[in-house]
Amino acid sequence: MKDAAGKENDEATLTTAFATARLTYLGDGDVRYKFELVDDTLVSVGTHKDDSDKSGRGAEYSLLEWYGGKLVTACDRTGNVDEVPVENDGKRVRVLLGDGSKNKGLKTEWSTIKDGKLLIGSTGKERTDDDGNVVHKGEMWIKALDEAFAVTDIDWSTQYGALRAAAQCPHGAGYMIHESGRWSDVHKKWLFFPRKLSRQPYDEVIDEAKCCNLMLACDDDFDASKVIAKPALTFLPLRGCSDFLYVPGTNDSHIFVIRTEETIDGEVGTFCSVIDIAGKVLMPEMLFGKQRKFEGCCLIADFMKTKPAY
């Protein structure tokens, strides 16, 4: 799903982009996979009045997950959790910032399935003011949803803190921003590709060029001393990971990665590649979304069987 919103007509309809593609295994060799874009379509998903934040922004979908027989996404402006295709005729499911006590949507950024639950996470960073003072820690909570889409709020400050400690960017001396994270039932480990990493206090201007190429793996206990950190893909300060998935049939050893790039002059693009868990490139990174910022990916074979006309 693309993280973008626009007015389609005078009724201020929100739109987003939904792309389908095919990843083919080519066998052993220098290049083991081939990526082919099948379709890239703008989809109407709601109205500014009903489905946006106070600034009129909405449908900025940042994750994609097949869960409970539904293709699920979530908006990082409103916290709305939607089923694809978005029809807005069912019960509204919304995840809220922090412990859920305030009526403010979570900035949803990543998702995974663990122990039968859909987990939705945010940036993992404290929100600070211009002087570096902490305003709130609401984005350091995750949400666990069951198949009835009942929501449980979980404080993940310790888990995010362990990842930051391993990368030597604790609060006050730096920060880390997440847009992707997945649990592997095969390896019994968490894997993260942080989008941004800084060993300086947050500054909105220089933050634009703080993307990183770091891969982090850890056990479920998040022991900072046991976090495995290694580089993955080429370091480009304006290009960071937006999502990834384990390639089926590889025992979670091959990883399809999407990275998005935003330049200072407003150009955006989405790139994809395949690597293994050691960081070896199995398919070189390629541009597949020019002026598109796709922020979520998942295997949709089951979805296409149930909704082939979408």
Automatic annotation (TrEMBL):
Keywords, sorted A to Z: Calcium, Hydrolase, Metal-binding
| Name of a matching Pfam family | Apyrase
* One GO process term, biological-process aspect: proteoglycan biosynthetic process
What residues does Ca(2+) bind to? 62, 109, 179, 242, 295
**Domain of life where this protein originates:** Eukaryota
Any idea what this protein is called?
Apyrase
Any one GO molecular function term: calcium ion binding
As cofactor, the record names: Ca(2+)
InterPro entries in the cross-refs? Apyrase, Apyrase_sf
Q: PANTHER family annotated for this entry?
A: APYRASE, SOLUBLE CALCIUM-ACTIVATED NUCLEOTIDASE 1
Q: Into which family does the record put it?
A: Belongs to the apyrase family.
